[in-house]
Specification:
alpha+beta; 6-stranded mixed sheet; 16 helices; globular
Amino acid sequence: MTMRYMPDAGRLYGPEYARDPQAVYAELRKRHGAVAPVEIAPGIEAHLVIGYQAALDVLTNVGGVWIKNGTAWQARVPDTPEAAGPVAMLGYRPNALMSDGAEHARFRKVISDCFDLVQPHKLRQTVIEVSDSLISQFAAKGEADLVGEFAKPIPGRIFNALFGRPDSDSAGLIQALSDMMEADGETGKQGSDAFSRYIGELVQSKHAQRGDDLTSWFIDHPAALQPNELAETLVLVMAAAYEPTANLISNTISRMVSDDRYYSSLTNGALGTYDALMEALRAEPAMSNYGPYFVRQPVHFHGTWIQPAELVLVSYAAANTEPTNVPEELRSDGGAYLGFGAGPHRCPASDPAMIIAMTAIERLTSHLCDLELTVPREELSWRPGPFHRALAHLPVRFTPIRPDQPGESPWAVQPPSSSTPSAPTYQGRSGDYATSAPWSS
């Protein structure tokens, strides 16, 4: 799909972009202003919104011209191997992310209502159990790759639990998601097939027997999701949970262990985990470019004409770090940043995501208080890709700890059972402990 004005489009793929995306954004800003032409894959072009105010205008749907349904764009995308990944990420699906109006409100209410039932303190306890079980596997070695051994398994295990599956199912889920994210060809197909089987078996098991879990609540919600809508909602929740949460955890840790503002030892730095999370959400959001949008009719937007069926992506990373006269009060806390989006499509589960990330990081740094990178941060390798900001590895070293040492240790908390669901108990809006959602009684 060729756009008529794209000869100097910036590339959001390849090693140069992965190494220093901010340099690419700066060059695009200098040449084009708030909206720039880019390629997200060879031959797949888009408008990238890199200005802070322009991003807010899109996300809050100023003028009412912005829509999420990309069916017309998808019909114009060439059927090439390079297009398969972007279409999978951006193509229309019947879910809250890709819908508008009443349809979007219906899908979103299911997600927000069901996540409202999650008790924060019970979720935190589950994160502690999962984090400690992972830390105990490498704590005695004195070194670890905190991407593969910590950050990536956490959201897979947590959401497997929230979906109401036993912890023994989480390894297969994590492998399927990793194969889908990391590989093309046969490995990628195997991962996709395994993930489809997981979702199918999950839905079948919960139709047969409800539980105190997200899947059961989705099924019983008054919105009455159809089978394909239920499956797509589960896929969306897992997609929005796995990669972004893993990246948020690893990106935040990498900043904490390489910046003396956070620690000379992790127990006595001037800034804490929350500060590091806020900085990561602003400067290196886990999903750096996403928020696909389209227009209802031709629009002249911040100096650029945009036509229907042309893809528009919001660069949270570029907008957050735009060197303009954004009032300082808008930069003072995470609520002003775009790491979780803004407007009607803002992430409806940002609070659980923050609980998961903060609890996991605090658990890690409380057990291993002298973490340090084995290479300078500027030499860390980042996974290429137009949508995420994701470390490939996060190698660290630390003073080993042993199971027989006195005091609290990661071995002291029992990991979730492999035979029963490890989902926490949830709390309805009435404040009582619930054995079912309020609408199913």
